[in-house]
Amino acid sequence: MVTNVMMPRLSLTMxxxxxxxxxxxxxxxVEKGEPLVEVLSDKVTYEVxxxxxxxxxxILAEEGVDVPVAETLAIITAPDEELxxxxxxxxxxxxxxxxRIVASPAAKRLAREYGIDLAQVEGTGPDxxxxxxxxxxxxxxxxxxxxVREVISLTGIRKTAAERVSLSAQTAPHITITMEVDMxxxxxxxxxxxxxYTDVLVKAVAKxxxxxxxxxxxxxxDQIKIFEDVNVGVAVATENGLVVPVIRKADKRGFKEVSxxxxxxxxxxxxxxxxxxxxxxxxxxxxxxGMFGVDMxxxxxNPPENAILGVGRVVEKPVVADGKIxxxxxxxxxxxxxxxVVDGAPAARxxxxxxTALENPEKLLT
Length: 366
Prior knowledge:
Layout: E1 3-6, E2 16-22, E3 29-30, E4 35-41, E5 44-49, E6 54-59, E7 66-68, E8 72-77, H1 85-90, H2 105-114, H3 132-141, H4 156-171, E9 174-182, H5 184-193, H6 197-211, E10 217-220, E11 223-226, E12 232-234, E13 236-238, E14 241-243, E15 246-247, H7 255-270, E16 284-288, E17 307-311, E18 315-321, E19 324-338, H8 344-359
Parallel strand pairs: 12-16, 16-17
Antiparallel strand pairs: 1-8, 2-4, 2-7, 3-6, 4-5, 6-8, 9-19, 10-11, 12-15, 13-14, 17-19, 18-19
Helix pairs in contact: 2-3, 6-7, 6-8
């Protein structure tokens, strides 16, 4: 019996997945439930298991190729069963389609020298062949020619991130407000209990979300849906791109539990071992660029959430307190929110609550 191995739908919004690597080759035997292929979608890697035992008769999707949900990845048959020509023809392999470009050797050499993409050049030679003069005209039209050192394909995590950021920017009218926070007490707490600033931020944000539930919501058509759980995502930069592991029910966790869980998730993120569950279900996101010396920035909302908190560096600076000038560690917070869901005043009150919690972090210990 012929069995098709399909690209699974790993989330409600998933439209396609990327084939990362095959664990089996054509002609090899496979047991039911045995890992067959690793796919990537929504920044999550997932091992697709063999739905039945048999032999891999045909692999239809190459590694690195994007495959739509429910498309066939491979075909499994019984060990003594061959794949008929009719069945093989019905399953066209998923391949990258590349445009064939015809160009003279001189044109190719000149294109390499100036970093010109031949696909963008119109050929005037016989049958559309690109000749040297076509390249020279292309160079002459450009005021400045830049040589390309490397081309990076927008696939996998980077492609997913690009799509989500574009969706957020196009659909949600972003408003960003900023606020300065005195981190003196947070610094003392950090030193005393060996917590990180991010640990304190997660607890402060979780507390503020319970007091301002509209910030812990999503907009679906004409309905604002306020989430029951407070699940705080923390953006983590990895070699493959930005990922957002989630600390579920952060408002109900103590400092030590938040700190331990955050360390675990960050380590798994950098090793590329986060599970789908660890990266889904977020209701609010924190993104920190302070370690790169950034003071303030405008973060983009992580859909389907309606707000995100950008965190700058903690820096010593002179401030006026009680009529005196003194040096204190100060941090800037930038809150971006969906103006369709939240107005400026309630968003500002939420940010004030985060500021108050950070400036009085001992209250978060109780």
